[in-house]
């Protein structure tokens, strides 16, 4: 496994565009650090400091940071589809197979790299969240600090699932731009199908089916925290209550899609004439 990861890291680091995108994909999620220190002066009347609003308190901070950090996953998604496109355009895929790398090892090298980068991103976001929380939070009890740390698991699974989808699309079309275009088409298709289901069948059943769709299932891992933030400021608004917790079946659905995408990528490579 380590040999395959080292092989991929060497390829990515030698490519200038991939190197820049990897650096950006790791730096941008840390804009939450900047947000936590922002002070907005309203014409001298008062100063608003985001860190003092309580949104960086434990345990809600785990929810907020992982949700917003996940929005920057598209930068590494470009890296994933590019590392497939480059294999075909530079003919390194054929050369790797000639040099003794099996097709299974080729796909595994891509997947291991996806897991490696997802794990690194999760650890960095986890550390950043912990230190921001320790600085701003009024809660210091360990039980409260680590109460919702499972959002880190959701973040990790979400990245692995999304990048595995990008791996499959990269293998399917062999071109980075087309793969990203297919990703957008998939998003639109899910929305259209969901809308048609809401129109033709019971809304509750449509919602349950929709939750099994690839992109929607990944979204469900970390629900938007805006509504929850408002609820903390206005606890009497019970009509705004919603289920934001991570559930085991949500993780299972995304892991299922991850396995499907990796297996489909392998099957495409096995049947394709190189």
UniProtKB/TrEMBL annotation:
Q: What's in the keyword line of the UniProt record? A: Membrane, Transmembrane, Transmembrane helix
One annotated GO molecular function: ABC-type transporter activity
Tell me where the transmembrane regions lie. Answer: 20-40, 60-84, 111-132, 152-170, 177-197, 249-269
Question: GO cellular-component terms in the record?
Answer: plasma membrane
Q: Which PANTHER family match?
A: INTEGRAL MEMBRANE PROTEIN-RELATED, MEMBRANE PROTEIN
Q: What is this protein called?
A: ABC-2 family transporter
Q: What is the lineage of its organism?
A: Bacteria, Pseudomonadati, Bacteroidota, Flavobacteriia, Flavobacteriales
């Amino acid at each position: 496994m380590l040999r395959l990861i080292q092989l991929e890291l060497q390829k990515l680091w030698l490519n200038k565009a991939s190197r820049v995108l990897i650096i950006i994909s790791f730096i941008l999620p840390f804009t939450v650090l900047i947000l936590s220190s922002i002070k907005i002066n309203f014409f001298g009347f008062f100063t608003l400091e985001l860190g003092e609003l309580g949104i960086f308190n434990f345990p809600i901070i785990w929810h907020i940071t992982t949700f917003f950090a996940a929005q920057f996953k598209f930068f590494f998604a470009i890296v994933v589809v590019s590392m497939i496109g480059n294999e075909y355009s530079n003919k390194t895929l054929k050369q790797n197979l000639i040099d003794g790398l099996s097709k299974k090892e080729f796909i595994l090298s891509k997947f291991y790299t996806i897991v490696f980068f997802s794990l690194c991103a999760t650890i960095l976001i986890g550390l950043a969240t912990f230190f921001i929380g320790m600085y701003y939070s009024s809660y210091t009890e360990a039980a409260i600090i680590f109460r919702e740390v499972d959002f880190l698991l959701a973040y990790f699974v979400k990245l692995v699932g999304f990048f595995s989808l990008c791996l499959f699309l990269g293998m399917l079309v062999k071109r980075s731009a087309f793969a990203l275009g297919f990703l957008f088409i998939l998003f639109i298709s899910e929305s259209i199908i969901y809308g048609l289901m809401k129109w033709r069948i019971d809304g509750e059943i449509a919602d349950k089916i929709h939750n099994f769709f690839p992109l929607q299932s990944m979204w469900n891992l970390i629900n938007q925290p805006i509504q929850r933030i408002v609820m903390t400021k206005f606890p009497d608004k019970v009509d705004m209550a919603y289920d934001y917790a991570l559930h085991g079946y949500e993780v299972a659905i995304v892991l299922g899609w991850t396995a499907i995408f990796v297996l489909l990528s392998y099957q495409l490579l096995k049947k394709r004439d190189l």
